[in-house]
Design brief:
alpha/beta; Transcription Regulator spoIIAA
Amino acid sequence: MAVDYRVFRDIGTVLVTYSGKATVPDTLEAFERYRADPDFEIGQKHLFDVRAVTRCDAGFEEYFGMQARLVEVYGLTENDQLIAFLIDSPAGRDMAVMSQKSWDHLSSVVITIHDSEPEALAALGLRERSLEALRQHMM
């Protein structure tokens, strides 16, 4: 699986793109790269594009262990952490729903699930209405 991200610091947003089989080790590796990025900031909005996910392989214990690691960073903020998932497949939906359920107990993390780019971008308060327009934002 490939997990890639791009930070749009001036609009406080991170685009995370998954393809292939989603795994916990790959997700944690991408998260650590992002945390080490000079543009990393607590509170950045996240847009997870999981439309190209073909399978989500995560056992219950492994997945919630990963979520515990992420809570160390995101769960202790005073401001809302906005996260939107962009889906169009059963595997992507499963991944998004599992993430949403795992954060339900924290009022500071708000996760929404969308099947269209304009909806997902609007949920994060962005003016762009397509990922292409978002990617062009910094060019």
